[in-house]
Amino acid sequence: MASPRRSWSLPLLPPEIIQEIFYRTPAEALVRSKPTCKKWHALITNKRFINEHLQRSKERPQERFIRIFDKVRIMDPITRRSAASPIPNELLQHPYNINTLVYTLMVHCDGLMLVAHRGWKCRSDGSILPNIALWNPLLNKIKWVEQPTGCITSGDYYGIGYSGDGNYKLVRFTSRPFEVEGFEDVPEVEVYEFETSSWRTVGGKVDVDVEIARKCVSLMGNMYWVAYRCWKEYEKFIRVFDFSDETFKDICFCPPSYGDNSHLSCFNGDSLSLLQQDAASRKIEVWVSSKLGDGDVSFSKYFSLSGLDLPALRVHATAARPVYCFVKPKSVIVWCVEVEGKGTDKACSCCTLYEIDEDGVKSKKVTERNYVRDYSRAFVCGYAYVPSMIPLPWVRD
What we know:
Elements: H1 15-23, H2 27-33, H3 38-44, H4 47-58, E1 64-69, E2 71-75, E3 82-86, H5 89-92, E4 104-109, E5 112-117, E6 132-136, E7 141-145, E8 156-162, E9 168-174, E10 189-193, E11 198-201, E12 210-219, E13 222-229, E14 236-242, E15 247-253, E16 262-267, E17 271-277, E18 284-289, E19 299-305, E20 323-325, E21 331-340, E22 348-357, E23 360-370, H6 375-378, E24 381-385
């Protein structure tokens, strides 16, 4: 005799099985699942679960590409699917309009985006408006950070990370402060602690002979920049700000680069990577570092390829840098700006997604077109980030 048909549903599974399934579920789907039932909501909003989900996300490809141009667009580089949402009013309506300013910096850390404008504006009473915000695009939450006490300059650099106790911090410093009028009043390094909602000057020094590039990445709680000494521009190295002891360190030399067409990112969640292209020959080189926590750090070539038929990953010096990530061995997915119909009345810029490996271009997809001539405007902000449900650290309004 045939056995009776049995039915089951996810809520009937043991709690430990549901938890394990949720650990493997993308953060975007979990956020949509919160209203489903009280038990799911309690689990998904549990601090321990959120932290464990983030750690597991770092162990497998979970990166997304995010860019801002009229809307916030988030792209899954594996599925090639994208979703768009309005720019949060707190960013759009603020005097530092993120949609129009090319001087806006973004740095990703654990699903949180540090948004900073390298400049300042004053209220009618003479006080300075906040120019730094922390934003979780997945949760659509944003908070502005109060200003540091020192002078704000257009040469300021910002970073985000955390110390050994897991508390998030910001760092702000002015590179080569002697070039700033009144530089004797410019604090060399300031750190903001979310735990106390306050800035303080720390003892770290910024060498006056070191030029720090805008290429930066937050990884494993620390901030990394490409830098060079003024008389050795060809000899680039990686400078880190260690949030545990709040000092700068130089950890390794970079491989020979192609000038400004060298792009810094992360690799496997614990290493750095450099994507480089020679503008004339179109040759592409991808370098990755050894693990950052394993003592001496050095770069080795991951793969390279040549050919004039390769795409130009950065069409102009004013164009935004390409965004890239790794999803397969010896392969990279790149999101960049290109130009169609150059020199004609129908010229437009477009965002193109490439999959490139050591054998060449494996796939190409134009994700959108913008009929504007300013390439930097066409792709104002582009970054790779890992969506997470990490709540914003408490910030005083």
